[in-house]
Amino acid sequence: MGTSNTVSRALRLIGESGLDDGGVEVLAERLGVGSRHLRRLFLRHLGATPIAVAQTRRLHFAKKLIDETTLPMNQIALASGFGCVRRFNAGISKVYHRTPTQIRRLARQTKLQPGNQYVFRLHFRPPYHGEGMLAFLAARATPGVEFVEEGCYRRTIFLNGRDGYFEISIDQESSALVARIEFGDPRSLFFIVERIRAMFDLNADWSAIVQSLRFDPALIDRVESDPGLRVPGCWNGFELATRAILGQQITVKGATALAGRLTASFGRPLSLSLGLPLAAAKGLTHLFPTPEVLADAKLVSIGLTGARAETIRALARAVADGKIQFEGVVDADAFQQQLCEIPGIGRWTAQYVAMRALGEPDAFPSSDLGLLRAMGLQNPRELEKRAEAWRPWRAYAAMYLWKIGSQAAGGGSKLASRIQKMGMEGTVPQQVPMSL
């Protein structure tokens, strides 16, 4: 694996509080490298050590809360992950040469948000293919849980016993996402923001990725015409895996309809106690069902086959019992093996889930019919051999190939017809396509 890939994994773990238990040494051990080597990689690619990167993120987040909210300083200290006010004050004073109170006095605060509502600008390194990201998410948006319209993505969230929602729009001129969050507990804001960054793949280093893709004749034209295509992540790994199982051997549209039925039947209505009727007006009404609920749910009632229903229940039981976890995963291969032990989940789904739920940049569902079609190949082994040149960024190559394949399928050929009938987001003994 490439060194940029190691940094990418480390950033994901840091976003999941990967430095809280043992610091850089434990983080490096989880990544399978030495702590000194990890520090060198961070200095080479980011110009700062892992601890400095994590601290800078928290400081910038705290500064944002000081400037643009009326939260008390002790709540800001907790929300930005400092743990105590003393460390928070010391960190702010050292970097900004002013106390938090002095900074707030100087802040304009001309657009303060109502209580429990926050607006953040989440910057990325261009190019960023926002249109491709939103198109991908729009096709797979679960009715009631997610909604995409007019360049804006919205979804409901549940965290630490509270309901909320957020919406995302893309400001290409300032190279940032605009995240509007409504959530009642400010202590969760840092986690929410970090999860959004991962979901929209904002930490990706396009300059490193493109080096592995730009010299392949099959990709060069698309990479140059559509630079910055990212790999969409997810809010919740269990939700994504369930959605992938729902989509086995049916179209994306059909799978989306099933996900809507699943949510309406087994999901919980979004709480309106925090002034969330606005969310309902924006197409958000429910939270996706939890593993505990689906573990014993009668899923055939929404039109699933008995085998498909049992696969979802088995996954739900494994997650509810803690046997399968989607956070803090370092060994993607071991994770995929765990998934494949569940009857009805095969290598395609495992790769797809690793790609989107773990942010694994080298995940590659080589049996996917859409990928094979885009490359003009018949055998997954041939595709895997060809894809060696794209390591460690094969997930990004997959996004481009799906885009190529989806456009090529528009001609009404027999193959295109077959793709329309086959599943687009699952895993079965056959090869299963997915397209943008």
Structure at a glance:
This protein has 22 helices and 7 strands. It has 436 residues and is of the alpha+beta class. A hairpin with a 2-residue loop joins strand 3 and strand 4.
Structure description:
This protein has helices spanning 3-15, 23-31, 35-46, 50-68, 73-79, 85-96, 100-106, 130-139, 189-199, 206-213, 220-225, 237-246, 252-266, 277-281, 291-294, 306-320, 332-340, 347-357, 369-375, 380-387, 394-408, 414-421; strands at residues 117-123, 146-149, 152-159, 162-171, 176-183, 268-269, 286-287. It is an alpha+beta fold.
Radius of gyration: 22 Å
* Helix residue percentage: 40-55%
Largest sheet: 5 strands, antiparallel
The number of distinct helices, counting runs of at least 4 residues, comes to 22
Helix/strand class: alpha+beta
Number of strands: 7
Give the N-to-C terminal Cα separation. 27 Å
Write the layout of secondary structure elements.
Layout: H1 3-15, H2 23-31, H3 35-46, H4 50-68, H5 73-79, H6 85-96, H7 100-106, E1 117-123, H8 130-139, E2 146-149, E3 152-159, E4 162-171, E5 176-183, H9 189-199, H10 206-213, H11 220-225, H12 237-246, H13 252-266, E6 268-269, H14 277-281, E7 286-287, H15 291-294, H16 306-320, H17 332-340, H18 347-357, H19 369-375, H20 380-387, H21 394-408, H22 414-421
Helix pairs in contact: 1-3, 2-3, 5-6, 12-16, 12-18, 17-18, 19-21
Output the keywords.
436 residues, alpha+beta, five-stranded antiparallel beta sheet, 22 helices, 9% strand, disordered C terminus
